[in-house]
Amino acid sequence: xxTIKNRIVEYLxxxxxxxLSQSGxxxxxxxxxxxxxxxxxxxxxxVQQGELVRIxxxxxxxxxxxxxxxGELSVHPKGxxxxxxxxxxxxxxxxxxxxxxxxxxxxxxxxxxEKWAKDRHRSGSVIRVLERRHSQIVGRYEGGSPVRGRRxxxxxxxxxxxxxxxxxxxxxxxxxxxxxPGQIVIAEITGYPTxxxxxxxxxxxxxxxxxxxxxxxxxxxxxxxxxDEFSRAAVEEAVQISKLLCEExxxxxxxQAHGSQDRLDLRNRVIFTxxxxxxxxxxxxxxxxxxxxxxxxxxxxxxxVSYYVTxxxxxxQEAYLRGCSVYFPDRALPxxxxxxxxxxCSLKPNEDRLTVSAFLExxxxxxxxxxxxxxxxxxxxxRLTYTTVRKLLEKHSPDLCSEYxxxxxxxxxxxxxxxxxxxxxxxRGSLDFDFPEPEVILDLDGVxxxxxxxxxxxxxxIIEEFMLAANEVVASYVTSADAPFLYRVxxxxxxxxxxxxxxxxxxxxxxxxxxxxxxxxxxQALLAQAQGKPQELLISIMLLRxxxxxxxxxxxxxxxxxxxxxxxxxxxxxxxxxxxxVHRLLREVRTKGRLSPDRKEExxxxxxxxxxxxxxxxxxxxxxxxxxxxxxxxQFMKDKLGEEFSGVISGVTSFGIFVExxxxxxxxxxxxxxxxxxxxxxxxxxxxxxxxxxxxxxxIGNRLIVRLDKVTEERRRLDFSLISRLPKAxxxxx
Length: 734
Description:
Blueprint: H1 2-14, E1 20-21, H2 22-29, H3 36-49, E2 53-55, E3 59-61, E4 68-75, E5 81-85, E6 93-95, E7 108-116, E8 122-131, E9 136-147, E10 150-157, E11 166-168, E12 183-191, E13 200-209, H4 215-223, H5 232-243, E14 264-265, E15 272-275, E16 284-290, E17 296-303, H6 305-308, H7 314-322, E18 326-327, E19 332-333, H8 338-344, E20 352-362, E21 368-379, E22 382-385, H9 386-395, H10 398-403, H11 408-427, E23 438-442, E24 448-453, H12 458-480, E25 487-489, H13 495-507, H14 520-530, H15 536-546, E26 551-553, H16 577-592, H17 597-637, E27 644-653, E28 656-661, E29 667-671, E30 680-683, E31 688-691, E32 697-699, E33 703-712, E34 717-725
Parallel strand pairs: 6-8, 11-13, 14-21, 15-22
Antiparallel strand pairs: 1-3, 2-3, 4-5, 4-7, 5-6, 7-8, 9-10, 9-12, 10-11, 12-13, 16-17, 17-20, 18-19, 20-21, 23-24, 25-26, 27-28, 27-33, 28-29, 30-31, 31-32, 33-34
Helix pairs in contact: 4-17, 5-7, 5-8, 11-12, 13-15
């Protein structure tokens, strides 16, 4: 069926000069009358997928030929939205609130392109919703006005991007469910919104009262449609796999008799893992050797999840549904059941595990000389944490050095190689964004005790560089075999956005040498120039906003930020479905060599859908994780109303000043209405607020004393008022 789909799209793109009816398409493709029913079904699927658009007269055409675009809506809490294009090289499209036509955040829609807006964005209007992404809404129930003597209610969504309340008609909810005003409920949508009507629904579950322990994460799970339970079939498969520990892991001498190819036995090598303190699923292990030439031989050993999770099984379906694991401060939603994710697949110390190994040889400068890929079996000797490695390499803790005496030379080699690889990446123009990340500290009851900056050290650099190198090698190998593949791409940035960014940093006092669109080397030099300065974080954020989002696709357009012509995700198959797909494709290419034309066509029909789904699930997971961390930040500050704090201005907008507090990794807003000593004007070219009378200037990096006046949990917002400014002598980088 995928072959017919490709032929239809190709015919309309290359040979048809106008939209065609079903009969016209069948004639053009030479389809027999007996195929009419199947043909109609395929056309319907193409329309549903957004590949084709049906217009008046039951004619079908390509969206790009009719000034239409298909993509996912990202709605702002203020009501407007952007269409995130699914077409390579296409910029996002602005959609005003009045042109949404009832579409909701994350819906997949067709937008008619209309004009360029003043802010240089294209604008458009939603003409059709292809896929509704919300069947249920989590929110706060409130009573409404009586309707024919009975009280009507409504649900206020917890997600601020769902901008319309859900109307709950009298007697519509499930029997026995009578929520009280203020309770958190789940409403099933029974009528989607239109241009002139709010969404309607019925209450199907009462989750509890706001503030109940653990409820915030449950709300996020439901709001972002994150599956938190595995199907019975998937669990049964996982249990069976964990019981039937494969003969390779037991060292059985007759491997061929058990249905798998020979594996390279690496159980006597010094192999170890480096992960976070709380990690339970260990995807990757490493080994490093010094070559007689003075170079290095790096081994990156990745859990062979594809050996256990095969296509079209219940486990595979569940993993695909999730797309990736999701991590919250107090729990994780794994992509695979625990029997695999933290059991048979996890590279635990002193246990035999099946792996796929990439051996990479580098010269002393860190340039790749050759590589080899192999199925393998390992026995990790050590489970190290980032903190332990830092203490061994930088603190030289006597007790730890004694405990890990055998391993220290290997760690020293790992550091040497990682530093060499990093220098090579810098030389080719790779961009590094080292954003501070929050870490939520919880007590035994799950109550937030603090928000701190997550530490990054040499151990993180070692793992990061080694995984990047392995990912590039695997992408190069499969590409050289001319096989369909799943790439991790980062497209060239939009020239207009980069020009706007250049103007912005110039007004901050930074220069980008050269004319026209800046290249990676210029951007890299700028980031180095701003390092350690008060504007460092702002410049990094603004540059990142000027770039496009990384995503999965079968079309290789390279990875702009990494300056890599070929890149994929291979190193985390326990927690990312794309990596599992890459492992399967890699094994198929290594086993068969060149794939047959039929197999190539089959994969070409499957991979675009997998790529789009995995990109979507990745964004959802990131949004959910960020949302919970922001909520924990706000909850941590609830009992500190009226207290004063010192902090640094981290951002300036037309509506106020964002301040990041010292010693507490939280950020709040001084709204412009709280600056009562003057009328302040926002200067976008310098990202500052300037008083019209006093000429006081608030800019990035200025230090302030602020008071916490208001905590708004639902909007994840802290409101500050200005107490005083610290003298310029006290200004220092945050």
